[in-house]
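Q: Got a minute? One more chain.
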Amino acid sequence: MAITSDSLVADIATAAPGTIRVFQRHHIDFCCGGRTPLAEVCAERGLDATLLVTELNAAAGPVSAERSWQEAPLSELVAHIQERYHAHLREELPRLDAMVDKVVSRHGAHVPDVLLPLQATFKALQDELLSHMQKEDAVVFPAIVRLEAGDAAGATAVASLAAPIAVMEAEHESAGEALATMRALTVGYTPPEWACPTFRGLYFGLAQLESDMHVHVHLENHVLFPRAAQLAARH
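A: Always. Here it is, folded:
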């Protein structure tokens, strides 16, 4: 696609996955808040739209190694999301949970206005994500795979999933708000100078969680769910 200042952020990230790194570098929301024109985002964030468009067009070139999921079988995209993001989250969330508890136990009294709300926000996010993934893996994703395979029940199942998918997207919004809260509390995951290695490791891990979640949600909101809805509409 030809990227201009009028292009929607989500459309750019969907058509040219190599641009995702650019959006991440500038902390531009390309998942839940991605249905916004580039010019509007630049105006809000004080960015030079011309320079950003140039950077995005360069990243969108053929040198990008990012796979485009727009044409891939939906079953492959589902498998990718489950293997790359769901499985990783189920391992990473308990690790981060233990780290946040350790950091709070040792340093919570030093910066209670940061670490205590950070701990509460993370734990709520963890509970929501684990429940969210279970619903997707048990209900939403199998219905999409059946639909693509031509299972007669698949179309009926996906047609009845409009409400559950809306719930999934609402939960994505909630997760995005939690991630934004954690970023604000930690001033962009910048540890204090006196922070111990565990403290620094926690902030690094949370920053990686945010980065992964943005791509994860983008793939579902802007690729998987719309493509499944289009497929269901043809049945």
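A: The mean pLDDT is 90.
Q: Perfect, thanks.
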